[in-house]
Amino acid sequence: MPMTSMPYHIRPFAPEDAAGATEAYRAGRPHLVVTPEVTNWLVGLPHFNLLVAERGGQVVGSARFGPVTESTTPDQGFLNVSVMPEHRGAGIGTALLTAAERELAALGVRDAHGWADGTPEALGFAAARGYRRGRRAQYAGLDLTVPLPPLPPTPPGIELRTAADFLDDPHPIYLVDIDATRSEPGDLVLDDQSYEGWLAEIWQRPDQDHTLTTVALDHGEAVAFSAAQTDGRHYWSAFTATRSTHRGRGLAKLAKAHALHRAQARGLTAAYTHNDAENAAMLAINEWFGYGVCAEEWKHSRTL
Known about the structure:
Layout: E1 9-12, H1 18-26, H2 36-43, E2 49-55, E3 58-67, E4 76-83, H3 92-106, E5 111-117, H4 120-128, E6 132-143, E7 158-162, H5 171-181, H6 195-203, E8 214-218, E9 221-230, E10 234-242, H7 251-266, E11 270-276, H8 280-289, E12 292-303
Parallel strand pairs: 4-5, 10-11
Antiparallel strand pairs: 1-2, 2-3, 3-4, 5-12, 6-11, 6-12, 7-8, 8-9, 9-10
Helix pairs in contact: 1-2
């Protein structure tokens, strides 16, 4: 049977779908650092939903969606659809999108927000289904098999530690996180995430690497960090942040430099990051490290 006429069906995710759903999400996106373990963990979060497309006994696509819980703007939702390249053109992406939109509407979501790869096919798919293009973001990669720039000097009074030193009490890192999140570029007004929610969704994420995540302290107070996630081979910069009271002193760059040097010493081969195209400060830091842009994506929104 030709690939284009092979039947498929959309259904809820099951734990045994983790590997296939992860592969479908990463297909054509080698810059994404995600594992089946993380996919299974995400589905366990109360606001995260996952539908899969099955074809010929194989998971070939997925829709990841749910309400945006940390925004003060009511009735907002996230929605991202991906289909393996060899299975595109058969209506699978449209079927996943329609099913996910239906479930979002049932949850009370009014506006759906998602990201489309910066390719003519992905952008055309979103536009044809009524999604409005908004912000641009970019992915960048760094080869860790070649020397990194030397570590910047550590200013007086600054101490560098890892997140593993905060396992008994990560609250100081949480305070840096929420302070920095308030100034992140974006379309939605974000509320401060609760400490309990932060522990469950960020600190306890299974690929969060506390031994690589680097924290800068100013006379004992946590003021900046660079968070790392890993899949065993690749490094993902989850968030690099500085408290508003300590910006402009190079502490984010310092923390990220130490994290990357630790990753290289461990034998990780590549590092990837994602930034809003208007985040000039972080883009400049990444350029200093030698990151090169490897892909882009565009924010899209639609009123359901």
